[in-house]
Amino acid sequence: MPPPDTRSERVDLRMTPAVKRTLQLAAASRNKTLTEFLLDSGLSAAADTLADGRIFQVDDAQWDAFQAALDNPPGDNPKLRRLLRRRPAWEK
């Protein structure tokens, strides 16, 4: 987590009082402020989520099938080519 003096962005959250109390208790149990707890927890969850998309575990048969697919790419697919040229929804 960056030092406090470098923070320049703000995120507003809406939650019930019960949820806030639960988060505050959890933060206190770790000797952290609510902000520190939410940032640490959120960054940890983000790293796990991003890693899930980059790390794949496969057995030997699946690995062989994957290698075969890489060695024999599919033929031309105009619909797929058009789809891949589109801007992602998050960039619109």
| Main sheet characteristics | none
| Count of beta strands | 0
Secondary-structure content class:
mainly alpha
Whole-Å distance between the termini? Answer: 30 Å
- Indicate the mean pLDDT: 89
Number of structurally distinct domains: 1
Radius of gyration: 22 Å
Helix content: 55-70%
H and E order: HHHH
Shape: elongated
The portion of residues forming beta strands comes to under 5%
Number of helices: 4
Task: Indicate the low-confidence ranges by residue numbers.
Answer: none
Topology:
Blueprint (H helix, E strand, L loop, with lengths): L16 H13 L4 H19 L7 H12 L6 H8 L7
Helix pairs in contact: 1-2
What does it look like?
With 92 residues, the protein is mainly alpha-helical. It has one domain (4-91). 57% of the residues lie in helices and 0% in strands. It contains four helices and no strands. It has helices at 17-29, 34-52, 60-71, 78-85. The protein is elongated and about 55 Å long. The two termini are 30 Å apart.
